Amino acid sequence: MKPLPRMEVFAKVTSVGAFGRAAAALGIPLTQLPRQVATAGRDAGPLRVDLPDAGTRQALAPLLAAFAACHPGLRFQLRVTRAAPAAPDRPDLTIRLEPPTDPSWLAHRLGTLRAGLYAAPDYLARRPAPEHPADLAAHDCIGVHADDHGAPARWQLRRGQDRAVVMTRERYCVEDPEMARQLAARGAGIAPLRDGAPGLVAVLPDWELEPVALYALTSAPRLPARTRALIAHLTRALAD
């Protein structure tokens, strides 16, 4: 049997999402497929992905690891960049929290990132737990964003169809969600986090922060199979 082009094999696996179905569609033994996919991934060089901030990096890390596990041999080059790079230095995929204003980018909406509020039990033992979002104004809050020069922070929360906007007193303002998690774990205040952590308690568990939309930006309308596969994988994982 004449060997199939490696990237054709890779494209079929990424399109159907399973080795067994891909092997049947291509008419090749299942035992040969993992090696051909791994070789195709190595031959193509690393998949370069730019991320906007540490919070998005932390949220997407398990999703990227799951994608890598399905595609042995595929290598990644990940970096955090505040501004979307200009041509010709653009990576295979640029992840951003808002659609681009530059018309040379093509935007693919991936879904949303969600966050709830968490605090340590010893903090809640010292301060009565909030019963309504408005109560957050009287609490020490931990903001996760760039420096706001001390301005009051506007937290937007939702519960079903209900909406609430609170001007919080952020005692701490950090860019790294892991630092926010550690501060919360040490009783420093209430932090918005993508997920909890051992020892933290959900605050206002029926409420969540307004979800943040996530976009994948590309430059070319025709994308390599591995880039299309990663976009599809993230879209499934982040579905609203």
From TrEMBL:
It comes from the Bacteria. Residues 41-238 form the LysR substrate-binding domain. Pfam families: LysR_substrate. InterPro entries: LysR-type_TF_proteobact-type, LysR_subst-bd. Gene3D superfamilies: 3.40.190.290. Belongs to the LysR transcriptional regulatory family. PANTHER family: HTH-TYPE TRANSCRIPTIONAL ACTIVATOR TTDR-RELATED, HTH-TYPE TRANSCRIPTIONAL REGULATOR. This is LysR substrate-binding domain-containing protein. The lineage of its organism: Bacteria, Pseudomonadati, Pseudomonadota, Betaproteobacteria, Burkholderiales.
